[in-house]
């Protein structure tokens, strides 16, 4: 009996390790296959524009070492965060006002729909004329694109605040700042976070675009320079860097989101009867 | 303590006005426990919202302790039917109970005392650090009750608070309400559609007619003060009172008198 239990436990332990290995395999398998396929394609075709992953990796370290990291990458990422943060503040702030007041919403909605329809990249030449080729211009380009999902989702979230909770707050005299932070913003936080997630990926795109014209530094500028000078592995390494940056931001955002919305996920799980 | 005089509520609607409440007048004495029963659609929730200051009546007045109610009064607490939606899911149980006390600017120590006492009174002190959604429906409603008690109200309004919990939990919660009412000496107005519950809980039962609503009867419940689920409900007098109120509500909802459609809020 005891021997049987021991055997079962050992088997279970091995099963656990096996499961972990399977999980790792699941996660890494597809990237490994894709890199392998790329490698083969690169070697077989011998096309100049398609270096092997090995070459790109070697170039990556060499190109994005300290100097470019400090002069191009970090300022770009800084502008990305700056623009994104500005868009969050403006989007959530304006979204709360619009979500709470039907009158202001009716007044502004047609205008907002119009501005939303303008693709932000076309604003680049315009903004260059008005504010010059500057950090301000780049921040404005980022804000002009990534504010929309944040704004619209905030409006929806604020409008969807549960009327029973609204009555509860009224009964217990909860108003002012506590009402805003405890009721309105927390209620709307699932939608706000969804908007921020969309906004973040738009912000990355616009960061690159804002640096592609008439710029003299930054990630977008550097990649364009490499392309124009036929520094092909370097160009690829820039694309790789952008991919990694986006991936990293998405992972970090996911962690923050899980923390902020733990109550929401818990409520949903409880409603499903888990 | 609470005076409701000539209360009328008319909802404007697309197909003409709907008179939900016609003329309600009653008085609750200090420390009374009264139940309000009526057929479904008779405007119980409308009445409660008018008393709570959440809704303005079309005419008539609500006066609480000498002061006219025009907005939510500071010494009144409300327990809503939808317990799952009246607690803040992002706050823990204790935070939910203490939130109104923060707004009252009570010091942290006093808040803690009040929330401890209230949570202990409803038997949930152990769950103080849980989130509402981790609790069963009955427990969630007890958190809402604890929040109301910790607020130290003079009047406690309850809007069909046990309509959505199972029978056993409901019986427990009914006994809890009687216990809390005695311990914290509040005036309680308990709205329900369940006649048995009204007779079991109340010192008085106010019977509402169907819409457009008036107070049809005011029944004094002359049962012993100590009540328990098995014996009290088995008493002959309990059955008599129950039958009397049941008959009145049935008469009230008989067709015959011209009855506009029911008000939406119920």
UniProtKB/TrEMBL annotation, chain A:
Gene3D superfamilies, sorted: MetI-like (1.10.3720.10)
Pfam families per the UniProt record, alphabetical: BPD_transp_1 (PF00528)
Keyword Transport in annotation: yes
TM spans (from-to): 27-50, 80-101, 122-151, 200-224, 236-256
Domain ABC transmembrane type-1: 73-257
InterPro entries for the chain: MetI-like, MetI-like_sf
Domain of life: Bacteria
Membrane topology type: Multi-pass membrane protein
Keyword DNA damage: no
Places the protein is found: Cell membrane
Keyword line: Cell membrane, Membrane, Transmembrane, Transmembrane helix, Transport
Family according to the record: Belongs to the binding-protein-dependent transport system permease family.
Protein name in UniProt: ABC transporter permease
The organism of origin for this protein: Streptomonospora halophila
Automatic annotation (TrEMBL), chain B:
Keywords carried by this UniProt record: ATP-binding, Nucleotide-binding, Transport
Position of the signal peptide: none
Gene3D superfamilies named in the record: P-loop containing nucleotide triphosphate hydrolases
Pfam families hit by this protein: ABC_tran (PF00005)
CDD domains named in the record: ABC_NrtD_SsuB_transporters
Gene Ontology MF term list: ATP binding
Residues annotated as domain ABC transporter: 2-235
Protein name (Swiss-Prot/TrEMBL): ABC transporter ATP-binding protein
Organism annotation: Streptomonospora halophila
